[in-house]
Fold this protein.
Amino acid sequence: MKYAYYPGCSLHSTGIEYDMSSQLVAGKLGVELKEIPDWNCCGASAGHTTNHLLGLALPARNLAIAEKEGLDVMAPCASCYNRMKTSEVAVKSSQETKARVAEVTEMEYEGKVGVKSALEVFVKDAGLDTIKSLTVKNLGGMKIAAYYGCLLVRPVGIGFDDPENPMTMDDMVTALGGEAVDWPFKTECCGASLPTAREKVGLKLVYDILTIAQSVGAEAVVTACPLCFMNLDMRQNDLNKKVDNANFHLPIFYFTELMAIAFGEKPAKAGVGKHFVDTSSVLAKYNLK
Amino acid sequence: MRRVGVFVCHCGSNIAGTVDVERVAKEACKFPNVVFATDYKYMCSEPGQQVIKDAIKEHNLDRVVVASCSPRMHEPTFRRCLESAGMNPYLFEMANIREHCSWVHPDKEKGTVKAIDLVRKAAAKVVKDEPLQKSSIGITKRALVIGGGIAGIQVALDIADAGFPVTIVEKEPTIGGRMAQIDKTFPTLDCSACILTPKMVDASQHPNIEILSYSEVEKVEGYVGNFNITIRKKARSVDMSKCTGCGTCWEKCPTKVDSEFDMGLGKRKAIYTPFPQAVPNKPVIDRIHCTKFKNGKCGICQKFCPTGAVDFEQQDELITEKYGAIVVSTGFNQFDHSVYGEYGYGKYPDVITGLHFERLINASGPTMGKIKRPSDHKIPETVVFVKCVGSRDEAKGKSYCSRTCCMYTAKHATLVHEKIPGSKSYIFYMDVRTPGKGYEEFYKRTAEEYEAQYIRGRVSKIYQKGDKLMVRGEDSLIGRPVEIEADMVVLANAMVAREDAGDLARTLGISYDKDNFFTEAHPKLRPVETHTAGVFLAGACQGPKDIPDSVAQAGAAASKAIGLLSKTQMESDAIVSNVDESRCSGCMICKGICPYKAIDAKIITERIGGKMAERQVAEVNKSLCQGCGACTVACRAGCLNLLGFTNEQILAEVEAVCL
């Protein structure tokens, strides 16, 4: 399989581990990734809140470039995926929108190609049997909370999994030999930019997610979104300083990191050394170093 | 040469507002055979009808056209008018220039032109009208009630009291329905069973009422006044004539099964009556769970039965009976909230429904009336109620309001306050709807005296945290999110149609709406009739209803059925199918098509080439024929005609408009 790869702003910067591990997993699964040439911002956050048409046109331009090569797009970032999917659905369902978007972007996007999230490509499409067969280092029953965040499986009808209780990542954890814990905060909000803009509100959201994950016995949290990852990983130190009795040391992983490690790659090669919260002890516990 | 009179109605401004009625009348004068035309403000009114009667006399009219509303509205009115003027009522046509014209066309010029066309069409047809005669049929003076809940029981009692025999067919082992499951009734808080069970006993002891419990309607044939109903009496495995209801069998039965009556919160035996006051108070064997039926062992109930009533060999029995009227009162189901992911997809044991709560709080329920959490049997201190679960939610549930939930939730909160000292109730609501006598006062009392806290907003998430249920929602009055730590959550699930309502509707030939509730003939003026003559509706099978409304509707349905049954003969419509025997080849294709079994073959004798010969032709039973017209299009020779709508009449209309 070959996909047009859309890294977005995160995977070349704050979420570089996601990029590194995605490339490794793609290699193992035989998925060829070709980065979209001259890609632009997906329009998340600032773009689509400024102007509806801008919010559709920005991702449509990237899709148009991919369409020229006849490739579906894989967008690992949940926000990029959500924006591109919204644009894809809008163009496919309205001739008027399609024409308007073409006029603005000065490029034709016919809706012949679409977008998939990395979770769809690496887990749903690859299949759990393939994942099991590629697993050489079993996760050994590590208790993991699968955290999807708010965007990946929403809105209803667009997402690829149940919007209230998604299971794709849970199934992956089980296939890799881990134990996916049942917990109620799979699709809660991570706070997005609020931990920066309105610290009190934002940090509470992160605090709640981490607390619930710990309360159900999770030894790690696995995610598929660079912003979720950043909030959960980077803000633990903040919380420990600012909240009484807070003492979080909960390792956060991209799902691709766990896959790469289980497939036999060195954790460092998958980018695990770049995390804020130390992952070495939990990896050591399950002989995954 | 016919003498046609045309009468154009203004219907106040309903027609005259967008149709130039005077011009229509003037144009009508020019149509062939029309000798008189006029317009009038309300043709259906008494003076309006007098205009018609006077014109018939003055102008010696032999055909009449009224251009007004739909024939569904006033055709019977004008036919009676003709009859009282000494004319055959079928020498009459209506041109619908209201629903088909003035109401849907804003342009007066175009509307007027269309109205003239519609009148021309009617005037062309009326010339071909022939006088028709009604026939009459006898009536079977018995009523069938399908469903033995409170609505069905009330219908049966009312009809039986009027002197007609009634059969109640109930699919469960006992009558009583949903009301038997309910603990208290709003707004008076009187005990549901205390007011229901006497009625159940009255029904069972009434000389005119026969109860067929554990039975279902299998097939419906015939027509109003003369239905042939096939009823399946499911094998009870207990001989009703021998059983005394002593209860030894269910005491001895070793197999415990979740009780449907207790919503799975309690147990029953494999041989059981759903509840102690069951009517008839005789058990059935649940063959799916009974050990004897599963692997041939056990049979303890049979051994202990003092009257030898247990019969493992019993088979389903089909009986066919004649009835004159049918009342459908099959009730409702509770909406299944497992589609609500935000409420946990039904996986949290302490998130229960209103009907579960009724069983928890009922003195003869699984907890002896103590409100206990299903998970750990602890008494909850904080109870959250969520209203509109499945109601008023087009995304996940039903578009309609279930009407009862506001009141029963208020009742539940009141009972929590009374039964659990120091407890606290929170009620999430969208609106509080209390349209009933004493209802608003009851709600106010719940909020003010019983300290239930009403929070206006939807619940976005319920999740388990330790042994607590965290309920997150929005208080839209203060514009802030709220989170409540609850011990138990009670959902006010919508009332929905029975899952097999569509099947029953097709069996009966009645219509049902988008939500599978049976449809009444007119939402305002014929609320308990269906479009199928002789079939009436009572209770929540027609739409969500509380007990007072169900009982009121049951009384109304009963009076309609009594009205029908009290006639000795029933007139059937004159618009029926007719065979031209001279052209009929006797192929009998029409016989198989007829849904009312109104067509049969007969042998006629005729002279062919100087010799007498016999041959087969079709014959229509005019009492059975409902005038649907299916046979007329099936007939290859076109020798079947619907009287009043003959091929000649239809073609006259087509010619008048198209040529």
Q: What stands out?
A: The longest strand of chain B covers residues 599-608. Residues 78 and 625 of chain B are 24 Å apart (CA to CA). Chain B has five domains: 4-134, 135-234+316-331+498-571, 235-314, 335-496, 577-642. Chain B has a mean pLDDT of 95.
